[in-house]
Amino acid sequence: MADNGKLEDHKQKSRERDQLLLAYLRGELGAEETARLRQRLADDPEYAERLEELLLGGGLMQTEPEDKAADFLPEEKQRSIIRWGKWKSRLSNAAYTVGISLLIGFVLLFVNYWIGRSLYEDMFRVSKDLVNFTQPGIVAGSSGAQVGLFYGSIQMELREKVGGDRQQPGYFETTNVFTKVSSRPVWNDGVRKKNLFFLFPLQTKLQEDTSFRREPAWKTLEMLPEGTVSQLAISFDRFMSLEEMYAFLAPYNLDLTWLAVDTGQEVLHEDAKEGVLLLSAGDVWGFSEHGLDYGPGPIQVNGEADRRTRAYVEEMKYLAEQERLSRSIGQSLFNSRSGLKIDERYRYLEKNGIKTYGIVVTGPTKELLKLKQEAAITAAFVGQIDWWNWNRPSASGQQNSW
């Protein structure tokens, strides 16, 4: 009985629809009713199809007279109404399609912005830290970014101080496609020659003469003219606290730019079992003197060891928390097949604090040569060399070609 009731209701609605359409074709509807019906024809494909059937001679309900719609309107008017109905339907479908496309595009842009924005801050910070912590003498400088659909790119300048000037050996690029992140250093002329090495003070190694790891550097500095500045990596025969290291440098007119730090993983290096461990970019860990965020207020030059230690350990903690991102970005900077081991390094530093075994310094070449008298130095390697730029000029600048 319920099905019969639904069927009768459907038939009644169909009769009412046909009566309305026939009245429209006869011109019996007023202006407002005609406007409402035309809107209904645009919105309801079933109404438009039924109107076309009536115009083409489709059958009416049995309760209607057997005459056809064609009897009421001229042929040209019939064709006009059919064309109008079809175009109205097409435009409606096109508007619907365009609207859906715009909505999907807006959603994709919003998702891209949200993902890109959240990734950007972490990508920038992790990239900056890993450059500052694994590349002796280099600090990450200013950066630029590009963001596209599911794509982002960050380029940051790489800088190293030689004398009083900062040179740019290249840049570091980090990109993401959706959530997949990769990175690479782009060196000037396509290559970066490793000059700065550090001799790790293995506690179990036999006493040996390390003069051959120092003399070439001293001879090079002796041959350089007075009007030059240089970069020098030196290693100590023991671990030094920050206070001890600053006291060591105090008598010399030099700038400290980078510190090699014991992170507990160096003794596990595959070369350590040979009794001599020489580390450089890709194996050594430390931090740039000017690459840490020390918080509000300037930090005392060659001082405030506790504040520096907190800043470094906190940043290592952050890298450990961003383990997946750190691993993706660090692959292009670190050589170890056993991984970055950042969490292990962080926990070691948190427990033991900062103990340095080597530093990178820069200054007048003849001032660097004075370090030759220090018995605590077990190795020395000369890096970049430039003409005299130690004294800060009263004015300076640069002009770009673009």
TrEMBL record:
<feature type="transmembrane region" description="Helical">
    <location>
        <begin position="94"/>
        <end position="115"/>
    </location>
</feature>
<dbReference type="InterPro" id="IPR025672">
    <property type="entry name" value="Sigma_reg_C_dom"/>
</dbReference>
<keyword id="KW-1133">Transmembrane helix</keyword>
<keyword id="KW-0812">Transmembrane</keyword>
<dbReference type="InterPro" id="IPR029101">
    <property type="entry name" value="Sigma_reg_N"/>
</dbReference>
<keyword id="KW-0472">Membrane</keyword>
<protein>
    <submittedName>
        <fullName>Anti-sigma-M factor</fullName>
    </submittedName>
</protein>
<dbReference type="Pfam" id="PF13800">
    <property type="entry name" value="Sigma_reg_N"/>
</dbReference>
<feature type="domain" description="Sigma factor regulator C-terminal">
    <location>
        <begin position="221"/>
        <end position="384"/>
    </location>
</feature>
<feature type="domain" description="Sigma factor regulator N-terminal">
    <location>
        <begin position="80"/>
        <end position="166"/>
    </location>
</feature>
<dbReference type="Pfam" id="PF13791">
    <property type="entry name" value="Sigma_reg_C"/>
</dbReference>
